[in-house]
Design brief:
- The structure holds two protein chains of two kinds.
- By secondary structure, chain A is an alpha+beta fold.
- Chain A has three domains: about 1-100, OB fold (Dihydrolipoamide Acetyltransferase, E2P) (Beta Barrel), CATH 2.40.50.100; about 105-160, Dihydrolipoamide Transferase; about 195-394, Chloramphenicol Acetyltransferase.
- Chain A is built from twelve helices and 20 strands.
- In chain A, the strands form five sheets. In chain A, strands 9, 12, 15, 17, 18, 19 and 20 form a seven-stranded mixed sheet that branches.
- Chain A is elongated and about 85 Å long.
- By secondary structure, chain B is mainly α.
- Chain B has one domain (about 5-20, about 25-80): ACP-like (Non-ribosomal Peptide Synthetase Peptidyl Carrier Protein, Chain A, Orthogonal Bundle), CATH 1.10.1200.
- Chain B contains four helices and no strands.
- Chain B has helices at about 5-15, 30-35, 40-55, 70-80.
- The longest helix of chain B is centred in the N-terminal third of the chain and has 15 residues, at about 5-15.
- Classes of the chains: A alpha+beta, B mainly alpha.
- The interface of A and B includes residues 212, 220, 227 and 322 of A.
């Protein structure tokens, strides 16, 4: 039997609330299939499965809030029979006890509470939530097994109590939650990662000319932005300087096998999310533009995939559109580097021993001293600089 | 198409990108991108939206003409949409 655990959704998202299952017991699934939707403080995330098999049991129920790593479903491996799975389950009774969390556990083991007398059956998570929301559990109906009061019952009662909850109120809660999540991840980053910072002014004369030439021939829908060149240049430099690309986990650096670039995207109502474009080093500029457009759209609509949240091996932030000259970022753990681009603006530059006014950008690097040092970082930035001088080769 | 009609389509397209946009806060003679906080991807999506609704091509060299809401409307009107 395969245990499917709630995958990581990024450093600032250590738990999620199951919104719905997209599969049912008996369904066959393969790697990459979306099996569930989980709501986080930042976005609703389509959870992808990384096993092949048949869904056996859905352990988690919609409405439950689960920590990353919680077993949320079990699967039969290809060829495995339900009988074998049951035998395996009996042999390991701890599975259900450990993996079923709070609410489900309380409901499933209602007997322990029955022994306690006339008390209503209330799951711990529902009781806690009831206290938070000021709901009296003795006054609300329970829809769980044996009339147990579930988290949903409490939340429904609270919603009914609160006359017409306003949209702005909900949004305010979500905002506060997101801010807390970002604060937690960034505090961890600043506490654990010894950052060093470098910057370099990169002339973009060639890149600007190349873009103008390309875009003159392309229809509006296929037009390319400088941002796509930045992403590609960073990914190619990562292939050469592998100590900028990957994860620092359990006291050591694990280089990324591919370059999945997290793109910092500001959400219009506030907040920030940095989901990945996968395998950037292998993609054409045209493909990257399509992927980037799609990612921005989905990030803002709150519809991302779990792999996009957990996979980025490096992050790129592009704050130039907001007019700043440069940006020095905070590394998103467990990544080890972040590249920032400021505003593309006309600047005086020395080109071929002459002074010229050309478009240029300040590229910056924040990197992890546990993995690399300034010398390597400088070579990495120089490589990005060099790649951007040859836009046709990107 | 009348200027009013064009303007309505432009605002609707903007709202597709910036759902929080309050039209009454929009000054039609002030820089559009700053007011609506459009980054270069938003700007491109805005133009693609206009292209899809009005079947108009907007070459990159014309971007500098599209400064304000009034300017965008005038540009589109002059394109004969």
């Amino acid at each position: 039997m395969i245990e499917f655990k709630l995958p990581s959704l990024g450093a600032d998202m250590d738990q999620g609330k199951l919104v719905e299952w997209r599969v049912k017991p008996g369904d066959s699934v393969k790697r990459g299939d979306v099996v569930a939707v989980v709501d986080t403080s930042k976005a609703a995330v389509d959870v992808e499965i990384w096993h092949e098999g048949t869904i056996y049991e859905l352990v988690a129920e919609p409405g439950m809030t689960m920590e990353v790593g919680t077993v949320i479903a079990t699967l039969l491996a290809p060829g495995e029979t339900p009988e074998a799975a049951e035998a395996a389950k009996r042999a390991r009774p701890a599975l259900t006890k450990v993996s079923l969390r709070e609410e489900a556990l309380a409901v499933a083991t209602g007997t322990t509470q029955a022994a306690a007398g006339e008390r209503r059956r209330v799951s711990p998570v529902a009781r806690r939530r009831a206290a938070e929301l000021g709901v009296d559990v003795d006054t609300i109906p329970g829809t769980g097994p044996h009339g147990a009061i579930t988290l949903d019952d409490v939340e429904r009662a609270a919603a009914e109590k609160k006359a017409m909850p306003t949209v702005s109120g909900d949004r305010g809660d979500k905002q506060a939650e997101m801010r807390r999540a970002i604060a937690a991840a960034m505090s961890r980053s600043k506490r654990e990662i010894p950052h060093y910072y470098l910057s370099d002014r990169v002339p973009l004369w060639n890149a600007t000319l190349w873009l103008q030439g390309e875009n003159a021939q392309r229809s509006l829908t296929e037009r390319v932005l400088m941002a796509a060149l930045f992403l590609k240049a960073v990914s190619l430099a990562c292939e050469k300087y592998r100590d900028m690309n990957g994860f620092y986990r359990n006291g050591q650096f694990e280089p990324g096998e591919s370059v999945h670039v997290g793109v910092a995207i500001s959400l219009r109502q506030g907040g920030l999310i940095a989901p990945a474009i996968h395998d950037v080093q292998k993609k054409s500029i045209t493909q990257l533009m399509l992927d980037l457009g799609d990612l921005v759209k989905r990030a803002r609509a709150g519809s991302l995939r779990s792999s996009e949240m957990s996979d980025p091996t490096i992050t790129v932030t592009n704050l130039g559109d907001q007019g700043v000259e440069s940006v020095f970022g905070v590394i998103y753990p467990p990544q080890v580097a972040l590249v920032g681009f400021g505003r593309v603006a006309e600047q005086p530059c020395i080109v071929d021993a002459g002074l010229r006014i050309i478009p240029a950008v300040t590229a910056s690097l924040a990197a992890d001293h546990r993995v690399s040092d300034g010398h390597r970082g400088a070579l990495f930035l120089a490589e990005i600089h060099r790649l951007l001088q040859q836009p046709g080769t990107l | 198409m009348t200027d009013e009609k064009i303007r309505a389509i432009v605002v609707e397209t903007l709202r597709g990108i910036a759902p929080e946009l309050d039209e009454s806060d929009l000054r039609s003679d002030r820089p559009l991108r700053e007011q609506v906080d459009l980054d270069s991807m938003d700007w491109l999506n805005f133009l693609v939206g206009l292209h899809q609704r009005l079947r108009v091509e907007i070459p990159e060299t014309d971007y500098r003409k599209l400064t304000t809401l009034d300017a965008v409307v005038a540009y589109l009107a002059q394109k004969g949409v």
